[in-house]
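Teaching assistant here, posting this on the class forum so everyone can see the example we discussed in section. The complex has two components, and the goal was to see what a joint structure prediction looks like when all of them are supplied at once.
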Amino acid sequence: MFELDVATRHIKSRRRQTLFSVIAVSLAVGIIIIFMSMMGGYTSILIDSTTENQAHITIMPKEGEDYIHLYHGLENYVYDLEGVKGVSSYFQGEAALQYKHNAEGVLLYGINPEDENRVVNRDKYMLAGEFASIENPGSRMILGFKLAKNLDVGMSDTVTAQIPGADPTDFTITGIFQTGTPVDETMAFVNLERLQDFYGSGDVITGMGIRISDAYAADTTANGIDRETGYDAISWMEQNAEILTLLETSEGMVYFFYIIIFGISGFGVANVLIMIVMEKMGEIGMLMAMGTSRRSIMLIFLLEATILGMMGVVVGCILGYLASAAIASITIPIPPDMYFGMDHLPVVIEFKNFITASIFAMVINIIAGVFPARRASKMDPVEAIYSV
Amino acid sequence: MSEKNIIQIKNLTKIFGDGVEIKALDDVNLNIEQGEFLAIVGPSGSGKSTLLNQIGILDSPTSGTILLDGIDVTKMSDKQRSITRNKQLGFIFQYHHLLPDFNALENVMMPLLINGVKRSKARKIASQMLEEVGLGDRLKHRPNQLSGGQNQRVAIARALVNKPGIVIGDEPTGNLDSKASDNIYELLRKLNREHNQTFILVTHDERMAAKTDRIIRIVDGKIAEDSLNGNSD
């Protein structure tokens, strides 16, 4: 394979140009790997916190109805579905909470704490008190820490809940939670039975939360429930369609930038090769005179593009890995109530990112090599030889 | 000398340029026998290099045929031409055109490697060839470490390494002083005698032309004179 010999000698003899084009390619690969790792980090933290902090599937009443009646049967049905890990029936209603001179509008959630914990781990977010304290249908309430702050209430204080058409009822604060999301300002939990009582609705619920073992199967499972029961089952993907669309759009945008970055590095490689082709005209002519086919001439320069690309890819992957690891290890002071309690930049170093970036770079490099290679192979040997 | 015509040129015409046409070769007919050592001479622009490039199938004619060893090369595909150049033709140019990134041995090995000869075998043949041109002690030198005359010797070794039937030289001594020129001439002559290869040299060095067996003088794309020199063995 004399083509490879010639290609490697060309590259070796042009150390400086080789160095620059390798730097161009490796920077492109490195930057893109860092981008991908950070994008992946944000995406996974967003999706993880989304799937962790809300039910994977929510069953809503049938169209035109306010409640799900006879929900115990539905509970049993859902429990028997494959992959279901938790089912929590809830009753949700709006109310005004009053403490001394402060009043706030809230969303009251009537739940069974044991069931609820299986769908969303509420224990984890308790600042004070126990989530299980609303186990029994007493007048106890757990609320978000910002809501508590706005009302200026603390543990064991008593707030008054008011809804139109019902007597105001006092609830004792037995817990305060903090999730780092807007619900801290609007949500309060009460025992399910107690809340049904308060609203005078009878034994009905307004919805049912479900947790399954594979969050990504939520769509399929939700569709199944929809079909089988006629209730409106919504997956977390559907519920967060906007976020997911946003993620997809930004990923598309980022790919657009990847192409630009790779394009620039590709031009660097093309530039080096065009220079080599120009400089080596006489040599190319002589190789043709010696019987080198046009195909082999083309191959020589495509090999050069490939070698330059490979060197850039290897260096770039190492660079990308080191930089991503360095970024991941930096602890930054972000207030924990913002950004889902992160204290460092989310970075996910994934093998597939390296593969994607490498393949991407190689393809663009080879494309960049095609023009100079074709130019070399199309040379008139006589012209090339007498150009020196 | 063998009586076999290794080169047969019939009605060869080459016209350059679109628009203003220049007739570089005008209905040339020429036969060259195997083992001949001949010079093509003529003023610059007369068409002598054009004729040489036609014989070397580096260029295609406008009309006419060229038979190398009885095969019409004007009808060959690009690939066949490459193969023919590799196996049947050796080239020596005014500038040595050695690959600067390869040493003398590797340069001489190149036609063999292009031909698909194994590296170890190619190395053996190439070093023998370099020995033959008097550079047995310069195998590992790169072109920039050798003198003009030495580089031209490497180029000759490279032209001859595939044992081609025809060796063409376009001003092979044009860049050398007269002493180096004489040495190169002697070398070419020696190789011609030893291997019975056909040598066609384009030159405007009349002194050198006078030492060949046959002189073909080209003027305005036509053979103006074709004379035997009486130098032959």
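For the discussion questions: The two ends of chain A are 27 Å apart (CA to CA). Residues 15-53 of chain A form the longest helix (39 residues). Think about how each of these relates to the inputs above.
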